[in-house]
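Fold this sequence, please.
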Amino acid sequence: MLFEKIGVYDPVFGYLTDQYVAVDGTRITYVGPQRPAGDFDRVYSGKDRLLMPALTNAHSHTAMTLMRGYGENMALDDWLNKRIFPFEDHLNAQRVYHGSMLAFAEMIRFGTVSVSDMYFFADATARAVEESGVKCSMSIGVTDFQGRGFYEIPAYEKTMALIRDYHGAFDGRFLVDFCVHGEYTSNEKLVTQVAECAQREDLGVQIHLSETRKEHEECKQRHHGETPTEYFARTGILDSRVTAAHCTWAEEKDIEILKEHRATAVCCPVSNIKLAGGFTNVPYMLKAGLNIALGTDSVASNNNLNLFEEIKLYATLYKASSGDPTVVTPAQALFAATVGGARAQGRADCGRVAEGYRADLTVLDTDVPYMHPVHDMVNNLVYSAQGSDVVLTMADGKVLYENGEYKTIDIERAQFEAQKSTDAILAEL
């Protein structure tokens, strides 16, 4: 496939007009101002179009689409214990599959093709990944309130089976990470054993980190002044490739530790604001050179999977919270949503429009009033563009969505089955 005379945004080279981008199989084979030699099975006109890397959602709980709008205007503890956990007790593999298919349809509609997921019934999510064509770095949520080690709870066998059966599946689209849900939902024995497993298997770890002030301060009380970051460093979790969601109350010393261990901090601005979690110290993270990615968190706390909302909020919110309007440039916001997320997942060949990279691409319609005039297209892309402007989404060279048509998902069935699953759970509560 050849994209012809199209505007191209790449996180390294910036925005270039009238470019040619060739895709052969799963890879980008050419990017440049001249038409490449050869025949192409399809030529895509770039008139009034902008091509950019498809986005990576670096933190979500995918199947929680079933809980969209279910628990609103509640404090986090009440939200979890009175709404979310009771609902989740009624999940099963089929219901998670339907929730995941609806989530993937929503993601590709808004230009996202890869997600870091932390949830249950991972085999069902793997099935949805295979069918939909998206990419997923999957971790099975690990919690324990009984003092047991990782090897003593069902999540251990489930995680090891998932690694055996699915890690690297679907031409590398499905990857497996280990997980510790959080310091406050586990114990030191469990955490140390998860760290041992991650090191042995050479896999990443997904965690929630300092999401709320209560979580952060109570950890210090439990562990002789250690912050959650210091605790995870001491127990060995940070010795692996770690994706740390939220980091809302991470202190400057924590950010330095995360940087030293080459971890990724995932900012989830919409969710953190909606749950009154606080404001991540993004200015210091950027100053420290920490890798930052963007996530939506779950639909239950967002309430959508439109990463363009996170991009704009990330580029604006921390200006207000810091009092510095120069903090977080548009380029940094786009980097977090593309390369930053790909790095978090260990996908070194994703996140850019460059030769040799995976053809994970999205095309936006720029022929809309709010994208004109153009003083700087990158500014428009961050501050003006909408997720609904996406007209084509491609993963590994395969078109998943184009002009309102889903190529791999029966959207009417996905919506119907998700509603049916939700109604069934509500009837059981």
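The mean pLDDT is 97. The first helix runs from residue 76 to 88.
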